[in-house]
Every structure is written in C-alpha cells, then in structure tokens.
C-alpha cells in the first residue's frame, strides 16, 4: 500500500520530449479525461473506480499530476470529499494529497475551496482518510496564505483530536500539520486552546517515535504566554530537560529553545528546570550542539546565573 509521495523510484525524463513521450502523455490525457467524466457519474461503483485510478495515476509522477489538474479533476475530487461512500472519500482525499506535491496544484486545491471539505474528512473519514486529510492540510500549509486560511476554517480542533486519538500514522500527520500551522502566530493560541499541549507532552515518550515532531511544535507554542502555562501545567518541563539530555540534535535544539522561553518569562519555571538537573546537559549542549542549540543552551545558563545573582 502506498504510504507517502515519493519520486525516488520513478525514472525521470531528462531529454527533451520525444514523439514517444508525447504519445504517452496524450494517452494519459485521454485516460484522465475519461476518468474525470466518470467522477460525475451517478453510480457509486463508477465513481469508486475513477477515484481509485486517479489516486494511482497521481501517485506515479509529476507529469500525471499536471495532466490530472489540467483536465479539471481537482474541483470534482474536492466535491467527492463529502461523499457518503467511505471508499470514494478515501480515494478522493488520497488523490488530492498526491496532486498537492505539485506546488501549482497546492494553490489550485486551496482555490477549489478544499479546506472545509478536508476538515469534514478529518471528522468523519476512515483512519486512512483522516491521515491523508491531515497530510493534505500540511501540504497546503506550505503556502503562507493557507496557514491563516486553514487556522481560521476550524481545522485545528480536529487535527488536535487526531493528534490525541489517531493511529500512529495519523498522530504523526497531525503533528506535522500543527507544526506548520504554528509558524503563523495567530494559530498558536488556537492550538493551545484546542488542548494540543497535553498530547504533545505525552508524545515525547520515546516509545511513541515522535519526540522530534512533538518538541518542535512545543518550541513554537512556548513563544506565547498561554503556551508556556500549558507546557508547565502538562508536566512538560521534566520531559523537555530529558530531551536536552538524551534527544537527537534537532530535538535538543528545540527543547533548549522551549526551556529558554519558559525560564526567561518565569522564575518559577527557572527553579523547576534547575531542580530537574538541567545544568550538566545544558553545559554539554553549549559545547557540542548545533549552532542554534549552543546559543540557546548558553542563554539558558546565563539566565540561571542572572536570576541566581538577582536573589543576592
């Protein structure tokens, strides 16, 4: 079963198009035009077959994605996200995910008013449909304007629900989407208010295999007051210190960034971080981490010193 878009195993056409490749493309075009007509069918079985074939064609290569979009499939696939047939819905959302690998298609999918129907799939779809809806929202959120539109359309609460209760794959897709959305400032409050922090702290258990994703979102949320309060309330400080000590290079960097936000804004957090034994791993990180990690670790150590000096 196809999991995530990949061009790695597809031979690329590097020469200028020959008559043979043009013939291939016109063959694909004729096939796609037939399938697009079938998307309009009244018959469930016909729609199911057409969405399934488009899903597979969109998986295979960039040329197919362009042809499918040019033949007018996107708006029809978006309409089918509200299909009552679970298989049609799942095929349609997966086809849109595959199509969205192409940047022009990202814009076309958003312009086809796909965001609210994708939220409908997040709320009602099969486990795989939910995963692929979250992954499509992530893909669309690469475009700056879409970060705001997705946040304002009510996507965050169902993404947080998936983060807490989805399949392992669904949780990863939700975390990835929430990370991108959290880059846009006004979404941070929405993500905190939807209850994401508790789930993110739970997902920092190494057994979940999601430490880096979870800590990256927390580092963004720690830049607002509500985020810092929620991290503290959810027991996030001990796990962040643990990531500084035992995490990957990227994990250590983001954990140190989150802790710096917490400590710079609260003496209480500062004391908690010190009580967790953060100084030795921060000293190690200030000497051997990534440039950003070194900078954050050094700033944290300076913060401890200045707060200590301030108490006389």
From TrEMBL:
The keyword Repeat applies. InterPro entries: ARM-like, ARM-type_fold, ARM_PUB, Armadillo. Residues 31-305 form the U-box domain. Pathway: Protein modification; protein ubiquitination. Functions as an E3 ubiquitin ligase. GO terms for biological process: protein ubiquitination. The keyword Repeat applies. It comes from Vitis rotundifolia (Muscadine grape). It catalyses: S-ubiquitinyl-[E2 ubiquitin-conjugating enzyme]-L-cysteine + [acceptor protein]-L-lysine = [E2 ubiquitin-conjugating enzyme]-L-cysteine + N(6)-ubiquitinyl-[acceptor protein]-L-lysine. PANTHER family: U BOX DOMAIN-CONTAINING, U-BOX DOMAIN-CONTAINING PROTEIN 4. Signal peptide: none annotated. GO terms for molecular function: ubiquitin protein ligase activity. ARM repeats lie at residues 72-114, 154-196, 195-236. Keywords: Repeat, Transferase, Ubl conjugation pathway. This is RING-type E3 ubiquitin transferase. Its EC number is 2.3.2.27.
């Amino acid at each position: 079963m196809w999991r995530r878009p990949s061009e790695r195993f597809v031979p690329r056409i590097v020469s200028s198009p020959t008559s043979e490749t043009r013939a291939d493309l016109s063959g694909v075009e004729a096939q796609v035009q037939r399938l697009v007509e079938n998307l309009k069918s009244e018959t469930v079985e016909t729609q199911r077959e057409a969405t399934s074939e488009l899903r597979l064609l969109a998986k295979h290569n960039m040329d197919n994605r362009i042809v499918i979009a040019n033949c007018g499939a996107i708006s029809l696939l978006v309409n089918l996200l509200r299909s009552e047939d679970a298989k049609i819905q799942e095929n349609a959302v997966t086809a849109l995910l595959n199509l969205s690998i192409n940047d022009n298609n990202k814009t076309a999918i958003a312009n086809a008013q796909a965001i609210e129907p994708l939220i409908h799939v997040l709320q009602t779809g099969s486990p795989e449909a939910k995963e692929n809806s979250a992954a499509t929202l992530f893909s669309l959120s690469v475009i700056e304007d879409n970060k705001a539109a997705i946040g304002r359309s009510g996507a965050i609460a169902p993404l947080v629900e998936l983060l807490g209760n989805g399949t392992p794959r669904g949780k990863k897709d939700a975390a990835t989407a929430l990370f991108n959305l959290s880059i846009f400032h006004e979404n941070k409050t929405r993500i905190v208010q939807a209850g994401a922090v508790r789930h993110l702290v739970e997902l920092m258990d190494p057994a979940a295999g999601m430490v880096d994703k979870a800590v990256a979102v927390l580092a963004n949320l720690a830049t607002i007051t509500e985020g810092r309060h929620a991290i503290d309330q959810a027991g996030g400080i001990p796990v962040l210190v643990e990531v500084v000590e035992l995490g990957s290079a990227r994990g250590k960097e983001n954990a140190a960034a989150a802790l710096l936000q917490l400590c710079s804004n609260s003496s209480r957090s500062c004391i908690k971080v010190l009580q967790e034994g953060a100084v030795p791993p921060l000293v190690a990180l200030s000497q051997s981490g990534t440039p950003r990690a070194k900078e954050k670790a050094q700033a944290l150590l300076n913060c401890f010193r200045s707060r200590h000096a301030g108490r006389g």
